[in-house]
Amino acid sequence: MEMFGVFAGIAIIGILLILFFLLLGLIKWLLQGFFLFRTAEKKNLHLPFMGFIPFGTFYLGGQMYGGHVISKDQFNPRHIGLVFAIAGLVIYFLGLSIGDVAISYILIESIAFIGIFKAYTKNTVVAILLALLNVITVGIAAIIILFLYSRSIDDEAAETVGAPLTQRDFEKPYEDMAQSYTEERNTDVSQSETGSEESNTDTTQSQSDSEESNDDSRQ
User: Fold this and answer.
1) pLDDT tens digits for range 74-119
2) For residues 116 and 118, what is the distance between their CA atoms, to the nearest angstrom?
3) What parts of the chain have a pLDDT lower than 70?
4) Which of 25, 74, 128, 176 has its CA 20 to 30 A from that of 110?
5) Where are the domains of the chain?
6) Nearest to 65 by CA among 53, 80, 51
7) Maximum distance among all alpha carbons in the chain?
8) Is the pTM for the entire model greater than 0.85?
């Protein structure tokens, strides 16, 4: 009976630990997915809802490499995201145990998030260090950075909207109007010159026909 009670107690503790870690994983998944979704939506990334889908986070993180880690327009951001998603799936299926799979998953996700970390910190070294920190904290660091980055995007948008108008802001519309008017005048002049050339050509042709007619009358 005593041994049975010991085993029952160990089993209960094990079940409670499993439930605790499952709950912790669920909370992490919801928080990371929500903040990644908001960030992706504000940055106009392709398929923002992928933030809630496993390996979809790799796809969104890879898209942020374009213009931050990799030169802008050097590669299609969607292709970069797709490479990370495929790499994550391959490494996942090559995992030999649950521990290997979990470690490889968070490692690839952290590498994929370097683009987001770089966009937030504007520093490649700091972004790499944050990726290492994300591995150590099992993804907790990414949640915090995504939250802060999402807030910073809102702050930048608010500053842009609320920025005071400068003299340049008033001058630019008139410059655009002047440029448009000049282009229209140039177009009209070009069309007028083309019309004049065509008219001269017709006149020359008419004179030539008249001379030929006179020669025929003389003959």
Assistant:
1) 788 888 889 988 988 887 777 655 556 677 788 888 999 999 999 9
2) 5
3) 1-2, 4, 67-68, 95-101, 160-219
4) 74
5) 47-151
6) 80
7) 140
8) no
